[in-house]
Write a structure and sequence with these properties.
With 81 residues, this protein is mostly helical. The protein has a single domain, classed as Alpha-Beta Complex (Uridine Diphospho-n-acetylenolpyruvylglucosamine Reductase, domain 1). It contains 2 helices and 2 strands. A two-stranded antiparallel sheet has the order 1-2.
Length: 81
């Protein structure tokens, strides 16, 4: 069965803009896009570590909720989720 990663992310509680709330995972510097849950946005001063922190939080939440491990599409060099 094929499932939409965007659907899984949203249903696990990570809606558009996740990470923008005060005290967010990356201090608001990085978040899920306000337009699509599959994209992580740099809000202007995010480091690679901030971007990965958002991705890790989302991936862990989907795994906790559904027991499904998401895998990144882009090749990450020098970083791991």
């Amino acid at each position: 069965m094929k499932l939409s990663a965007a659907w899984l992310i949203d249903q696990a509680g990570f809606g558009k803009g996740f990470g923008l709330e005060p005290g967010g995972v990356a201090g608001g510097r990085a978040s899920l896009s306000t337009k699509h849950t599959l994209a992580i946005s740099n809000r202007g001063s995010a480091s690679a570590a901030d971007m990965v922190a958002v991705a890790r939080e989302v991936r862990a939440g989907v795994e906790r909720r559904f027991g499904i491990s998401l895998h990144p599409e882009p090749l990450l060099i020098g970083l791991e989720l």
